Each structure stands twice: as C-alpha cells, then as structure tokens.
Amino acid sequence: MLILYKFHISKLGLFCCLFVLLAVLSTTSFADDADEDYQAYESTKYASSKWDAQVKQGMEAYHSGDYETAHKSLYQSFNSGCESPIVVFMLATLTELQGSYYSALEFYQMAEKGFKKTNKEHRFYKTFDENYGRALYNSGKKDEALPILKRAAKSSKSYWLLKLLGMLAYEKGDTLNALSYLERAVRITSSEVTKEELVYVYSLLGKLFLHKGEQDGAYRYYQKVLEIDPNNPEAKKFMGMIEKTYRNEEMMKMMDQLKDI
User: Fold this and answer.
1) Pairwise CA distance, residues 177 & 102, whole Å
2) What is the CATH number of the domain that holds 96?
3) What's this model's pTM, rounded to 2 decimal places?
4) What is the mean pLDDT of the chain?
5) Domain assignment of residue 67, yes or no
C-alpha cells in the first residue's frame, strides 16, 4: 500500500496532518492490486474494447506509483466514455494529489454514484468516506468534512486519519476524544509511522493523561517514549515527577498504617 501525506503546522503550532491516500485497505502486491481492480472493472457493463487497454495500463501505472501515466491513461478512457466507478475513483485520488480539489470532489461524487450501482464490495467504496472526507478537508470545507471523517473513523484502521481527528480534538481542548483517537492510532502497526512520530504521539498521550490526573496512563506512555529514545528529556522529567509522587503516596500509606497501630 503506497501512501503519500502532506503536513503543516497550524497557527497554534500544533501538528495537523492533511493526507493523500493513493491505495486503500490493500495488503497485497501492486501487481495483485492492479489485477484485482481490472477484474472488478471487467465484470461490469463499463468494460469496453474501446478503452480496455487504456484502463489496464492506467491501473497498472496507478499501483506501481507511475501517477503521470496513470492519470493520462485513465483520463483518456474516461474521456472516451468509460464510467467505471473504480476508474473514476482513481482519477479522484490522482486529481486530489495534484491539488485540484474542486475537480477531485466532482470525481469522488461521480464515483460514489457509480459504486451504488456496481462494484459495491470494492475496497475503494468501503473506504469512500475516508477519501471523500479527506478531499473535502483539504479543499477547506472542514465543517462538511469532519462528520464524514468521524463516520469513517468508526471502522478505519488508518493511523493518519485517527491522528488527524485526535489532533483536532486536542486543538479544541477535547481531552477525552483526543485520547480516544490517538490511543487507537498508536495501536495500529504501519511501516509509514516513524520512531520520531511515535515519540511525538506517545509524549502527547502522556501529557493528556497527566492533564486528566491519571498518572498510571501517563507513566505507561512516557515509558514507551524511553523505550524508543532512552535520553528523551521530557519523558525523563515527567517519569521522575510521577515516580516521586508514587513514593510520596507510599510514604503516606505507611504513615496512615502506623497511626492505626
């Protein structure tokens, strides 16, 4: 699964990700993905000898990462009359990647109508909300995007979607939802998530648990930070504070027990 992401720092200085997914919920090879998509396309009324070759070439290029060829071939087939929702969905993601959000949204809407008629079990349709919501968000239509992204997040296994929602909740001071989304995010194993990224999110989770007054949760995540970065100054500082609090609590318990003797 190939994923590209764009990031920016918000005005509040908080990390907020705007991501572009070019292949969704796939654990197979690029060649297998292309074959699967072409077979799904072939099984519908949208297949035609007029553009089959272009569709096949476009799908192979899409999954191999040759996005220029993919866009050219798939767009040619679309212009020739191909209305396959799989083809249109691919064009939506490719157009979104180029930053043409208005056109991308039109393609997504067209693909959704097509998926309601055919290829209903295709993985692109199963993750449609996540992709369409992201395009809305990237286009600046955040109020329209968030309900769709939250709906997608109920079943999503996308680290970056869950992190985005977690960071947005954090920006709003919504600690409970920030914890919920971010804890779900860090449970997801992804080769795209770097150690530096995990240190950042684990540290933030530690802070959020401290803010709630839950030292055990904070201790757990700062411990994870130190497992990756043993000399992390922030984690060492807060771990020391928490351990001191634990010792003081134990001392108080001992004093209370002595009073009862």
Assistant:
1) 30
2) 1.25.40.10
3) 0.79
4) 86
5) yes
